[in-house]
Amino acid sequence: MKTSLTLLSKNVRAVLAASMTLSAFAVTPVLAQEETADTPDNADVEKIAVVGTRAAPRSVGDSAVPVDVISDEEFKNQGSTDMVSMMQTVVPSFNVNEQPINDASTLVRPANLRGMASDHTLVLVNGKRRHRSAVITFLGGGLSDGAQGPDISVIPAAALKQVEVLRDGAAAQYGSDAIAGVVNFVLKDNSEGGTIEARAGEFYEGDGRMYQVSGNIGMPLTEAGFVNLTAEYRTSDPTSRSVQRDDAAALVAAGNTFVANPAQIWGNPEIKDDIKLFANLGLELGNDAEAYMFGNYAEREVEGGFYFRNPHTRGGVFDGGTNENGEALLLVGDLDGVGQGVSCPEVVIGNNVLQSPSYALIADNNTAVGANCFAFNEILPGGFTPRFGGVVTDMSLVLGTKGEFANEVGYDVSVNLGQNEIDFAISNTINPSLGPDTPMSFKPGKYIQSEQTLDIDLTKPIDAGLYEPIYLAGGFQYRHETYESIAGDPASYAIGPLGSQGFGIGSNGFPGLSARSQGEVSRHNIAFYVDAEMYLTESFMLAAAARYEDFSDFGDTLKGKLAARWQMTDSLALRGAYSTGFKAPTLGQSNVRNVTTAFGTDGELIDRATLPPTDPISVLKGGEQLSPEESTSMSVGLVADFENGLFMTVDYYNIEVTDRLSTASGIKLTEADIAQLLAQGVSDASSFTEVSFFTNDFDTTTEGVDVVANYSMDMWGGETKYSLAYNWTSTEVDEFSDNISQYRVRMLENNLPAVRWSFTTTHETGDWRFLGRVNYFGGIYEDHLDSALDIDKIGSEVTLDLEVAYSFAENFEVAVGAKNALDEYPDENTLYDTEVAGAQYPVTSPIGINGGFYYVRGIYTF
After folding, report:
1. From which residue to which does the signal peptide run (predicted)?
2. Which of 564, 729, 709, 566 is nearest to 642 (CA)?
């Protein structure tokens, strides 16, 4: 799991200090926050971290801010296969949950670092900013509602040398989004050798079968460079942890045999194809200069479940209101037009509309009434449950050169191109307004996020007579962003002939983006930064940074950071930091139009339209131009490095964020609102029940404590290593407007575990390796219907991960293991949630809803 690292020479350190590009740093994989290890010749070495500083790379214990350095072995030795879940396993303040029925969140799951939203963490690859995903998480479980962060699931673990997690505010160093911290994915740079790995697994219940194969190879690029290539392919079957909904069961009991059991699926989506390609290249140019290039291409097709459409009550499809006697009526379409030709009878639904004599009249197409009158029960007698998904395509390319001039001024110039595209798809559904001519599958449209960045960075060590030279850094960044919306196929948004008779418009569940709404918006920003780090004495280090950014769409901002570290004794050091930060609203948050299906405040399934905050109807309901989120962050910590080999860090953090961005809670549209929309030319406004928009409408204070400890010892004829990672996080919503409901506040404060910890033990002896990991997840609150209905308490959970591996030869290892080996499940949902929506377990549970997962993998190293 942990390999040797020879101390970097003084000359190499100088070169490294000249660049902010982390890809060139020849850093050996290490365990999180670990300080020393034994090399073959029993020499003590440092474990080096470079994220968070532009000076010479320092050991993680010497950093003024908390940094975790996670080796590639840590990612390999676990049951998870996607990067988001892997990060949750090894970083205690990193949280992610399943998204079984959650619109675009099913395609790109939002993740949270230190209790903040998914787009509060800046993601780097080889030290360069990673572009955002095109997916906006309209239903993000409260905390990440409306977030638009990068998609880190496109990064294959086989491509990584290590991952560095800076758990401190760093907007003054790296720019917008770094409120919670920074995650830097460092790619392998081997010029020879490689690995091939194949793994397979499934859940204890026999579903969710997964197959994955990956390979990495390093090759020389002349005698002065390297080419490192990685490929990964994965498929995964869906899971179901569902029970029959009460309304579906009542339909079956009344004689409707067309209703599926279960009518609605809660579980992991199906991953049909997941392809990931990464390349990392470097070439020495001589005279202390080098060129580098890296990039990726990834494509993933995902399909998941959606909400059940009841054949009696689904508005705009089956529900025709009530008559004067209060009886529920079926929505019947008059194909030759209301008041034209043959009239349609009133159909009372009763317990089973299929048994109604008046329904039999319209269902018999051999009569004039039957040929002219239409209800969707004729083609969907048991209702329907749409299948929603799409294809996510991601690509990037970074090219640059760096080196050092004769005057010790280091430079790094790079161009960064990135794009993420989501092409939505929905099937087993209808456009109700098209009546019997409707297709059953649709392409509702695409969103594309594109970014182009130019970075120019300069560094210089200045000898001022201090213990170490003062490392000065400064730079310039230009970034251009584009968010493009592409219309869906015409049938996905068409207003058919039955649209004027109360039938819904567009593909039901996810109406297509209309040609009227497609287009692209763009912006650019420029940034200047300065950075300094110095040792005033041998034991006291001080660092400072300032950054000015100017955005074309909302203005400029100036942020700063101070950090210090004091080595109090040989074993104990005190460190701390204070910073200001910001997060600019994304183009998607400012301009996106979307309609999603959710449960309303009355417990019924409704269509909720998300509109730009400057749209007239949004303004009518309180929307206004977005402004950046502002933050202040402080941390203080203790580093302990004892002679007996125990290494431990304890860090407290406090993050205050004002004007936080999120989607407003659903706001009901009145008849007057709908009339106003129609007058403005929003022809599908009659399909909207609620509207939402992005807003700067609440302030929060998040505080927490991270504890990381590592210890190793010789025992049982081999080496045993112990690792503890503990996190406590608490969020308080300090102020909020009427656009944010009390239920949303409760989700913001309590939907993540307040306490998470894991204790890992590994033992290696001869050809055998054993791993055991105990994980604890504190209780949470959940409202998985996102409906402002009663929220339920979910108790704490403990899970156990196990793995055993055997090396059959020097270069071939087979491992078998189990994630959640004791097959633990969260507390079952309350009777209300189970009966209404059919989810057996709370879907945002941090341990998931699928139970135990076992796997086998083989690794060949060459």
Report:
1. 1-32
2. 709
